[in-house]
Structures are given as C-alpha cells and as structure tokens.
Amino acid sequence: MSCASATLVVWTSAWLHGAAAADDVLDALGFWAELHEVVADDDGTATALDLPGPDEPPVGLALLLAALRRASASTARLVLPVPGDVRGLGGRGPLSQCALRVGQAAVLPEVGVGLVPKLVADGVLRWTVFDLPTVTATEHVPIGEAEHGLGSAMREAATALVTLDVARHRPNVRAEIAELSGEYAKLSWPAGMPPRSLRVLQRAAEVAAILTVAASDAPGGAVSASAQVARDEALRPLSEAVRRARVAAVEEAVRVLSDQGAGRH
Description:
The protein is α+β, with helices and mostly antiparallel strands. Helices cover 54% and strands 12% of the residues. The protein contains 10 helices and 6 strands. Strands 2-1-6-5-4-3 form a 6-stranded mixed beta sheet, sandwiched between helices.
C-alpha cells in the first residue's frame, strides 16, 4: 500500500498551487480514516501556526490547511525513514523519532514543520505537527532510476517467492497478493497526476504486496530462526526498492503538479 503521508503530500502540493480544491484534499484523505485530527507536538509550534498544543483538544484538517496557507507553504515532501536513514527530518529529534516509529512523515520545508500520522482510535487518524529544526538534504532519486530498480525488484521478488517456497505454505498466495495490491486502486489522485508517477506507485504497491505475503508466516506454521533470517535477507533489498520508488514517484508528482499550478497564474 501507499501511505497517508503520500496522499497528504501530493494533494496538499496540488492545492497550494491551485491544482486542487481544499475539499478535494480532505476527500482524498478520507480513504485512510473517517476522522482526521491535528495537534502540535509543542507549544512553540502550536503558537506559530495557531494550532492546538499537546494538552489541548485537536482540530480538523481544514484548520491545518488554513494554517499552512497563512504560513506561505509552497510544497511538501514525503519522507519514509528506516533505521539508519532519517534524512530529511532535521536530525534525531522528536520528529525523526516519531516518524521512524510509524515509517512515514510529510515535511513542509518552507514552514519548518513535519507531520506524522498515527491511528489513535478506530477510524481516527491524528496528525502531529512537529518542529523541523533544520532543513536537511534528502537523496534525490530520479523517477526513471527508481522505476528501473523497481522492475528489477519485481523479478527478484518472484524469484524469492519460489526460493522461499511461499506458495507451498500459502496455496492462495496469488489471490492474497492481488487483493493487497488492489487496495491501491481505491486511492484518488489529482487530475493532473503524471502517468509515470501513477505507474510507479502501482508497481510499488504490487511489490509491497508480495513482500507482505512473503514475510508473513504460514497459517499455523512455525518458521525456524535460520529460515527467518534467510527470508529477511532476501526481502530487504525489495523493501528498499519500494521505499525509493514511492518517494521518487511522489516527488515527481509534486514537481509536475506545482508546475501545472504555476502555469495557471
């Protein structure tokens, strides 16, 4: 699957450049939860953006969008941190720690904040707004390079499934993969979303579905420690290819949507 931060980054960037309406942003994020709420992690960030602090009742996403507009936000960036790589999150502060736990964040460099989503109740997704202490550089992965890497990853994933003999333990493995990757098709994107970004995100969803199935134990079965280590080693490069592809696809989408918006003015 993609992630809520990717949806927020793409749609908010489109909205900030006039390529989408605020209601479109809210509707798209409805895929991830019925209710979204927003709260700042510290009083300083709360005061700067006129948002509730950590000890105050949260507000809705519409007020976050208004706050970003007032703060002259111009774009957003997706960060998918993993242990050993928290680039783009301003060092090892509260933002990077929280983002690392959930594996995602939306960063708005001009405003100096990062947003991390977390399910806090059934159907309720809370976005915590953190201070971004410094705007650190992130690795730029051209979408063509990411797409090529993903193609290689898909071939390796198929080989890994055979090597790990997943199908023998899970006879309905193809159906499981199709169901998981099919969830991606329910996501909505702005009208000007570049086809290449859509294609890469779809392929990333397919590889991610393979990873999910291959990494899960057979129902009622036990995996030996050595087998688990071998499995994790086989799947790790595929997971990295998915991460790089998603970030590259979203970055390309933000660039194209921002250019489209600029062309309207």
